[in-house]
Amino acid sequence: MKVENPWRQNPWFESVAVAQRRARKRLPQPVYAALVAGSERGQTVSDNQAAFMELGVLPHVAGHHAERSMSRTVLGQEVSLPVLISPTGVQAVHPDGEVAVARAAAARGTLMGLSNFASKSVEEVVEACPRTLFQMYWTGDRDVMVQRMERAHQAGAIGLIATLDWSFSMGRDWGSPEIPEKVDLKTMVRMAPKVATRPRWLYQFGRTGQIPDLTAPNLAAPGADKGPTFFGAYYEWMTTPPPSWEDVAWMREQWSQLSGTPFVLKGVGRVDDAQKAVDAGVSAISVSNHGGNNLDGTPAAIRLLHPIATAVGDQVEVLMDGGVRRGSDVVKALALGARAVLIGRAYLWGLAANGQAGVENVLDVLHGGIDSALLGLGVSSVDELTPEHLLIPDGFHRS
Ligand SMILES: Cc1cc2nc3c(=O)[nH]c(=O)nc-3n(C[C@H](O)[C@H](O)[C@H](O)COP(=O)(O)O)c2cc1C
Would you say 126 and 106 are in contact if contact means Cβ atoms under 8 Å apart? Predict the structure, then answer.
């Protein structure tokens, strides 16, 4: 008789916090620190999660619904839960990187957001998840941007996310991790002590015969076999003059003529900007502060959501991202006017902990949490959620 080891760690995790603890154990310290990120004093990154804790719920004891629905149409696509994958550059977290994330998104019936700084090509990612939105920063000249949009469209992207909330703010009170320019033998020897203590991570990359190469394949010039290094890409971005509202309208127009699919402006935090985004013709906005990685002191995205949704929610789809770690967070955001949320670190922890299955696990944790909240609140669908379902302390919203 085969005896199971009762102390073996179950690869399934019950919460995003458990996934994060496993990611911390598994990843080399600089890779883990790059995902924690945050800027300056860390005020915004902390508030993104703390603000969710200020919102309360008051469950019923009877009159619940046996059947509950959380599917929704977002950006013209039916999704099985109102949680989308936010674009992140997941260099070096897992050898399958964004392809593993995309497979998980497809398996769980939701949309994948792919960063232009990602480690896998848009072609590979669309193959893994046909419902992929390609994300771009305002970087390079207009010809280069059009060429990148054309490539994403030809690959089959079903929408474009323009992320414009980035101020190149440098300096963290807790110190930034080292990111090497490229991973050559010299770098490997120098960083070996940080990596040698993470045998499982090493084994995963070793098995594939690849080392993380820290390039951005989706920013490759036409005909080039490799994209620029992460730093090359960052330099191009830093030296690109920042966009005006006319530039935003231009980008939206280019994408619309090329593909006729949705255009999302990500990073909106102000009601006046949300109104200008409507004027620029966008299909959707994401109320976001880049996961606390932009200007520190920006309030939590969830505090900014309701005033913005009230102002423009009848004209564009309003999404939000920042600090979502459990199903009840999703329900709170929907009650305050979001059509859906996007997640960043939550799935990165899942990816680090257990690859594609770990990302599926995160989406399942959120699915279970949304369902419990709907049950407790006595609603049969996410469409019924309103601010009345929450206990909102005075002064919670910011605008
Ligand atoms: C490590 C990391 C990399 C990111 N890279 C990008 C990116 O390339 N493009 C982008 O639009 N947003 C990027 N973001 C922001 C996320 O899309 C999202 O706005 C944020 O992670 C949401 O907050 P959360 O992590 O608390 O869920 C990144 C975030 C993190 C943590």
Answer: no
Identify which of 111, 112, 293, 326 to mutate to test ligand 1's pocket (most ligand atoms within 8 A of the CB): 293
Residue 28: strand, helix, or coil: coil
| pLDDT, tens digit (0-9, with 9 covering 90-100), for 16-48 | 999 999 999 999 999 999 999 899 999 999 999
* Whole-angstrom distance, CA of residue 309 vs CA of residue 331: 15
Helix (H/G/I), strand (E/B), else coil: 299 = coil
Residue type, 243: P
Q: What CA–CA distance (Å, rounded) separates 370 from 376? A: 10
Annotated catalytic residue within 94, 153, 290, 306: 290
Task: Quote the tokens at residue 178.
Answer: 């080292």
Cα distances (Å, whole numbers) of residue 45 to 147, 174, 295: 34, 13, 10
- CB 330 within 8 Å of CB 83: yes
- Averaged pLDDT for residues 232-260: 97
Question: CA 10 → CA 1, 197, 353, 368, distances in Å?
Answer: 21, 21, 11, 18
Q: How far apart are CA 321 and CA 334, in angstroms?
A: 11
Chain segment 333-375, per-residue pLDDT in tens: 999 999 999 999 999 999 999 999 999 999 999 999 999 999 9
Query: 341 and 319 in contact (C-beta within 8 Å)?
Result: yes
Q: From atom 3 of ligand 1, which residue's Cα is the shortest distance away?
A: 88
- Measure Cα distances from 339 to 46, 75, 365 in Å: 24, 9, 19
What's the predicted TM-score (pTM) here? Answer: 0.95
| Residue 286 Cβ < 6 Å to ligand 1 | no
Residue to probe by mutation, ligand 1, list 44, 288, 290, 349, most atoms within 8 Å of CB: 290
Ramachandran sector of residue 97 (left: φ over 0; alpha: ψ -120 to 50; beta: rest): left
Full DSSP string of 95-136: TTHHHHHHHHHHHTT--EEE-TT-SS-HHHHHHH-SSEEEEE
Task: Say if CB 366 and CB 346 are below 8 A apart.
Answer: yes
Quote the ligand 1 centre to 179 CA distance (angstroms).
17
Enumerate residues 6+ apart whose C-beta is below 8 A from 254. 145, 146, 149
Q: Which of 162, 157, 118 is nearest to 138 (CA)?
A: 162
CA dist 48 → 54, 232, 359 (Å): 11, 30, 21
